[in-house]
Design a protein that fits this description.
- Strand 7 and strand 8 form a beta hairpin.
- By secondary structure, the protein is mostly beta strands.
- The protein contains one helix and eight strands.
Length: about 110
């Protein structure tokens, strides 16, 4: 049983690859989250969710599947209208009903 838990932890820790943010002019910001399935099982019903704590902003992708050994990049877009410039703590989550991986990043909105 302990070995099964270790395998799940390894799979979860390998799920989120690189995270990139960038501006799209003065109007929008995008998040690019690279999702990596380093495990030996297909992952069904995954979604990427971005939460900017101080703004109460939640962005989420639709569900997608990722075969074992595959990588996929997901884009999420934020309209910056009405958002005060600053640096905000952001939570990025990739999950389905069985697994969840969370990363935190600071995002600067100009």
């Amino acid at each position: 049983m302990k070995y099964g838990i270790l395998a799940v932890v390894f799979l979860v820790l390998a799920l989120i690859g690189s995270i990139r943010t960038d501006g799209l002019g003065d109007d929008a910001l995008f998040f690019h989250v690279n999702v990596v399935n380093d495990g030996a099982k297909d992952l069904d019903g995954l979604s990427v969710r971005v939460l900017i704590y101080d703004l109460g902003v939640v962005l989420q992708t639709s569900n997608f599947d990722l075969q074992d050994g595959d990588t996929d990049g997901k884009f999420l877009f934020l309209d910056k209208e009405g958002i005060k410039p600053g640096t905000y703590l952001t939570r990025i989550t990739v999950s389905n009903d069985d697994i969840r991986e969370v990363r935190h990043r600071y995002v600067t909105i100009a």
